[in-house]
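ARCHIVE CARD
Drawer: 12
Card no.: 0347
Subject: one protein chain, sequence and derived structure
Cross-reference: see card 0346
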Amino acid sequence: MQRRARGYTLIELIVAITVVAICVTTVLAVMASVASRSADAVLEQQAVAIAQAYLDEIEQRWIVDPNPTTPPNTGRGSWDLLSEYNGLSEAPHDQSNTVISQLSQYAVSVSVVASSGLGGIAGASACTGAAGAKACRIDVTVTTTPNVSVTLSGYRTQY
């Protein structure tokens, strides 16, 4: 009596290998997609922290200068008016104008404008306080690659 050999045929093996290859390719594609986006949350959180630091600094400044004498300009640390920050565009620096090299891939830009919604003068381009501006809107935008941009806004009133 002859025994029949048991095993898989060539066609069954090719189908099995094809199914496994498709499954592995799909899983690896999903993992690559997740891995490429995993750093975005860290970059965004760092951008928020940078923007918050700038916004906190700016909100402590005056709208109208109580001491009109001009101190020597030693960087942002010597600025005492909101209007001095309008148009600021730089890589993150500390208040003594020292570049923070670990944050060199980020860019900070600041806009300070009179707010008509909180009693300011509509149409004023910069918040100087001279034209009766009672409130200023401060927008701090921090950008970095790839495609991370964070804008924090705050208000400073003269009251």
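Annotation on reverse: The helical segments are 10-59. The chain has one domain: 40-157.
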